[in-house]
Structures are given as C-alpha cells and as structure tokens.
Amino acid sequence: MPRLTTWIALALLMTACSHDANKTKEKIPEVAADRVLFTTSFEDFEGWVAENPSLNKEKAHTGQYSIKVDQNMEFSQTYTNQLARLSPKRFDKVRLTAWGYLTAPSAAALVFQITRADQTSVFYEKIDINKVNSWEQVSKVLTLPTVLDPMDQVRIYLWRASATAPAYLDDVKLSVEP
Ligand SMILES: [Ca+2]
C-alpha cells in the first residue's frame, strides 16, 4: 500500500487539478497488440495478491471481477510498476483506457501517477468517471514529462473523489501512443 504521506500529497495535488478529462468525447481507437504495455480484467488476481476488499465480484464489465472504492476505501487496489519494467524502450505518450461504473451521482477518478523512489510525485493525471448505473469507457492520452527516470514508479488506481457510494473499475489497458 502506498504511504499515507503520498495520499496527503495527492490530495493537495487534486485540489489543483481541473476537471478537463471529459470535455470532448473522442472515439476511442483500437490499439495494436504490440503497443499494449499491460491490460487486465482482474480475473486472475484472487489468491495472488494480498487480501484486499477492493477486488470484488459485485459488478464486472467483463468476467466476474472488478476493483472498487466505497465509503470505507478511498483508493482501490493499485497497479505499481517501474517504468523500466513496463517497457525496456522509452516512451513519451501513453493511452490509458478503462471501464468505470458509479452507483450514485458523483465523481470517481481513474488516476495515473508517476512517483520517485522517495514517493514524491513527478506526474499526475486523472480521468473522471461520471456515468451512473451503467459501464462507461473512459480514455485519455497522457504526454509524459521528459525528466522521468527508468526507476520511477507508475501507479494506476481508482480514486473515490466525491463518490460516497461504491464505484467500480474494470478492463484497464495502458498502451504506447504513437
Ligand atoms: Ca473483469
């Protein structure tokens, strides 16, 4: 689990972020398989990761599992990996795509963050999830800063934001954008 200090830093960052993710609805393109850095539907996690109430079978876009946040969990189960392990080749732009689901009017957010080994944040973007009682595909192209180090950590997770009822995330895909 990321440390508390990271979340405090995050909370400060979020107050400074604007809600620009869903201003324009673009057509989400298919991504060639060789450009996909990782993709998951959370189907094979059970038993391989530490017990985490975020992994659930309550709702799923595909298969049986998704991850969630709710009034007791501000942050979902988190994807964490070093840039160098994600790809041996440097990349400047990525596309993050996922399916989100809210159970009450509010806003949760899919977060893509890059942190240093000392937990300081060097990049932060979020994609708002707004659709209630149905699955919505969200996608955003992220231009990464040039100062990144191969040892920096990518973190991807669902943040509760203003949502008070459960919110779900499934079918996450991260790909290199040409
Ligand atoms: Ca799934």
From TrEMBL:
Residues 37-159 form the CBM-cenC domain. One of its GO terms (molecular function) is hydrolase activity, acting on glycosyl bonds. Keywords: Hydrolase. PROSITE patterns: PROKAR_LIPOPROTEIN (PS51257). SUPFAM superfamilies: Galactose-binding domain-like. It holds the Pfam family CBM_4_9. InterPro entries: CenC_carb-bd, Galactose-bd-like_sf. This is CBM-cenC domain-containing protein. It comes from Hymenobacter qilianensis. The lineage of its organism: Bacteria, Pseudomonadati, Bacteroidota, Cytophagia, Cytophagales.
